[in-house]
Specification:
The complex is a heterodimer of chains A (about 100) and B (about 180).
Chain A lengths: L3 H21 L3 H26 L3 H31 L13
Helix pairs in contact in A: 1-2, 2-3
Chain B lengths: L2 H22 L3 H21 L3 H26 L11 H24 L17 H9 L3 H21 L11 H5 L1
Helix pairs in contact in B: 1-2, 2-3
Classes of the chains: A mainly alpha (about 100), B mainly alpha (about 180).
Chain lengths: ~100, ~180
């Protein structure tokens, strides 16, 4: 089987790409997708360590992460639709009305 | 170069390339489709890691329902193309540098703790089977499981409330009609 380190490395690369997406992109939907990418990197790490230590807790945790992510996406996309209705844009730079 | 290593390398390349494609494509629909491919590839990695149940959940929940919801909202809003702007150029550099710092930290951590280089042993077939996952979910983790159900219900109600738009116009009751 593969060394654990390869999975850690792949997960780290995915996580970094997600961070860069959150920081750089201005389309709010793409920022959301980058968040999903980061969740996915963490899930991959959970499953890899679950296989490494041969206990199932990691996979259970991944299951919970997935369900909570689904709930988060539902609320987040509803917010996006509502923001688009009022501002006719989902550009993150334009969501600055709470700036002091 | 074992066959398993070659398969892992191929899958890893697909994962990284699709993640980059999601980041770099100008059209949000292409981003979503790249992300679907990314999730499917990670599902294959889960199968290699001996977690078939989680792998299928990944396909159905992530690559299926969540990404369909994303595509639906993108097409509903017509938000697939946003004009590019140069206002964030400085932030882009800072983000890249911080990402590199994070990678350097990880490499340092991995190289200092040689424990992680140990290979993953051969997996018992029952480890990630639906039966064992279900048993753990409904016995040891029954309370978190129920809490997750409550979270999903709250999220559904919240999404409906948020997208309801204008206040619901209630049909007039009989008393008001008489006036």
């Amino acid at each position: 089987m593969m060394p654990l380190m390869y999975y850690v490395g792949l997960s780290a690369i995915m996580f970094v790409l997600g961070i860069i997406g959150v920081l750089v992109r201005r389309n709010a939907l793409v920022v959301f997708m980058s968040l999903e990418l980061m969740f996915n990197a963490a899930n991959l790490l959970f499953v890899a360590f679950s296989a490494y230590f041969q206990i199932i807790t990691g996979q259970i945790f991944v299951f919970f992460v997935m369900t909570v992510a689904a709930a988060e996406v539902a609320v987040g996309l509803a917010l996006m639709v509502e923001i688009f209705r009022t501002k006719h844009s989902i550009d993150l730079d334009q969501m600055s009305e709470m700036k002091g | 170069m074992t066959p398993v290593l070659m398969i892992f390398g191929l899958l890893g390349v697909v994962v990284i390339v699709t993640a980059l494609g999601m980041l770099l494509s100008r059209n949000a629909i292409y981003s979503a489709l790249f992300l679907v491919l990314n999730f499917a590839t990670v599902a294959v990695l889960y199968i290699i890691l001996g977690a078939p149940f989680i792998s299928l959940v990944q396909i159905t929940v992530y690559a299926g329902s969540i990404m369909v919801m994303f595509l639906f909202v993108i097409m509903l809003l017509g938000a697939e193309r946003l004009p590019g702007s140069d206002r964030l150029r400085r932030q882009r550099w800072i983000a890249s540098i911080l990402g590199l710092v994070f990678v350097a930290q990880l490499i340092l951590f991995i190289s200092l703790r040689g424990q992680l280089t140990a290979p993953i042993g051969t997996l018992p077939a029952a480890l990630g089977s639906p039966q064992s996952v279900g048993t753990a979910l409904f016995t040891k983790y029954a309370l978190p499981f129920e809490v997750t159900g409550a979270i999903l219900v709250v999220a559904t109600v919240g999404a409906i409330l948020l997208t309801r738009g204008a206040a619901v116009t209630r049909p007039p009751t009989r008393k008001e009609e008489e006036k």
